[in-house]
Structures are given as C-alpha cells and as structure tokens.
Design brief:
188 residues, 9 helices
Length: 188
Amino acid sequence: MRARAMLDAWREHGDARVNGMRFRVIEALARRTSQQEGETRRVLEARLSTLLDAQDLPGTRDAVPEASARSPLADLIDEMNVRAQAHHAPSVLLNELRAVWSTVSAEKRLRESLAQVPKNAGPLNSSSLVHRSLSLMREVSPDYLQHFLGYIDALSWMEETMLAGGAVASKDAPRAASTKKATRGKAR
C-alpha cells in the first residue's frame, strides 16, 4: 500500500516530526482505510491520496522552499519537543526524589504520632487510635498512607491560612454568651 510505504519512509527520515498532527491523521486514516471494503474504502482511499499528495506534508519539503514549508508554530513545536527531551532525565530524577521525600515524610509523621501516645494509653485513647490507624495504613497500603498524609497536610494548611486571615474564629477564642441566658438574667 502506497500510504504505508510513505508513512514508514517519513518515520525513518524523521520527517514525521515536521508536521506531527498531519502525520498522525494520515496514519489513522490509513489504518481505517485498510479495515474497510467497497465504496467506503474507495472514498477513504481518495481522501488518503489527497492528503499524501498535499504540498505541506513531511517528505515534500524538497519541492517547497523551507521558509514557506514551515510555519513559525511548527518551529516552536519542534523547539519545545527538543527542550522536553532534554529535560526528560531531570524530570524523572525529580519524580524519584519526590517519591523518596514522600516516603521519608510519611515515616517521620508515623514516628511523631507514636511520640504523642502516652505510656499508659488505653485502647480507646485518641492518640493511640491515630497511631494504630497510621501504622495499619503503612502495612496495608504505603501509597495510600502517603496520599492520606498529603490530604491532612493540605487541610492543616487551609486551617492555618483561614485562622491567620480571620475567616474563622480560633479554637481558643471565647464564645459569645448565649442570648437566652442574657435575657433570663434581665427578666428577674
């Protein structure tokens, strides 16, 4: 099939990257055409032929001057692809570092929860229950523990931010006197 041969040649020469979206469209249309029969196949082959013969496709750059064959957007996309490939290794390293940091942070939080458990804590002591829950999460699903602690950190940050901004009364703020008590005291 002519389309498959041209697509393979473009891929070998690296021309598929020049106009990657158009290349993917032609590739998908070629796959779809090979799966059809009869009139549907004839229509798809005509469309595929039109796309393959177009002037702005990869592989036809020799017939068109370079300045008119490539748009500034294509140049920008190529530059972004080169930069993404150059930064791929550091991003992998960064992801691994985040995973290690997350594990270390979870272990630190687990140790902190153990430090808050009193020596003679009963089975229903809240600090003891929290520590046992975190320990069980670590055993059953360490990833879930890391996500859970992330949520807890986010909620704590939100609470601190809201308290600092005065959006919510602090826990230590005195409560206002009840209006019933104040009314009863005046009625006597």
